[in-house]
Amino acid sequence: MKAKPYISLVLPVYNEKENLPLLYEAVHIVFKQHGYSYELIFVNDGSRDGSEEEIRKIAKSDKKVKGIFFRKNFGQSAATSAGIHQAKGDIIVIMDTDLQNDPNDIPLLIQKIEEGNDIVSGWRKNRKDNAIIRNFPSKIANWLIQRIGKVPIHDLGCSLKAYRSEIIKEVNLYGEMHRFIAIYAYYVGAKISEVEVRHHARQFGESKYGLNRVFKVLVDLITLKYMLSYANKPIYFFGKIASYFFGLGTISFFGLLIHKFGLGTSFIQSPLTILTPFLFVTGMNVLLFGLVAELLMRIYHESQNKPVYYIKEIIN
Asked: What phi, psi does 109 have (nearest 5°)?
């Protein structure tokens, strides 16, 4: 039987042909110097530049290299998830393949894991990206994530992260949720830390991020907030919104009475005659949506045996 690797390095790939040989050599040297048993998992996310051929070439020369090849581009979250599912190591490290993260920083993250942390995130304190196109949107995104996620991390956008295997395998990734893995894990009790890492300017290829990333983060944050706060009890979320409509409807109703009996305005002439029932009906519809969501969530948990809690340890 093959020995189980200590480190699994997951590397999502999309059009990074020139970077792959350089990254492989750098990672190979680092792991050899530190004596880690390891596996490299390249996940080719539908690249069209010859990255697949480069991965096959590397895997042919090194049996510690696994290659996962998608039929088309499914996105970074899907590629990350596929790599995690195939990983066999006790510690799973995820890193981009654009050579902007430094493989020499991987041992720093592993050391933090060995000190008792479940998740260690890299912090690109001195970024080498374009100030307007990359850095500015990233600062906005990190500010929003910190405000909503309440996770004590400066740079959740940094792809270089290390996880205990049992923690990250509990997290299912959908859409573009790869950037929020640490938040999901943190909310189920994972101990999280960060370490400053180096950051280099891109040498080859083109960046896949831009100003549109802020919009994507906003949309994903709405989903994240809902999943973290109300996934198990969606009726609370919809009930809160419904209560606002009922409250406004009540205010509108009293305003209608004041118009009629205080100011002598006919019900027909007052715009509140239409607004009041509209607010009550909208509130009732939102409440009914909440009841439907509550039923769907119960079906989801019961049919798939999804846990509503996470156990750290059982003894005796």
From this structure: -70, -40
* Nearby residues of 273 by Cβ (< 8 Å), 6 or more positions away: 256, 267
pTM of structure: 0.72
41 closest CA partner among 53, 29, 24? 24
Q: What is the 3-state secondary structure (H, E, C) of the chain?
A: CCCCCCEEEEEEECCCCCHHHHHHHHHHHHHHHHCCCEEEEEEECCCCCCHHHHHHHHHHHCCCEEEEECCCCCCHHHHHHHHHHHCCCCEEEECCCCCCECHHHHHHHHHHHHCCCCEEEEECCCCCCCHHHHHHHHHHHHHHHHHHHCCCCCCCCCCCEEEEHHHHCCCCCCCCHHHHHHHHHHHCCCCEEEEECCECCCCCCCCCCCCHHHHHHHHHHHHHHHHHHHCCCHHHHHHHHHHHHHHHHHHHHHHHHHHHHHCCCCCCCCCHHHHHHHHHHHHHHHHHHHHHHHHHHHHHHHHHCCCCCCCCCCCC
d(CA 212, CA 254): 45
Confidence band (pLDDT; 50, 70, 90) for 312?
Answer: low
* pLDDT confidence tier of residue 259, bands split at 50, 70 and 90: confident
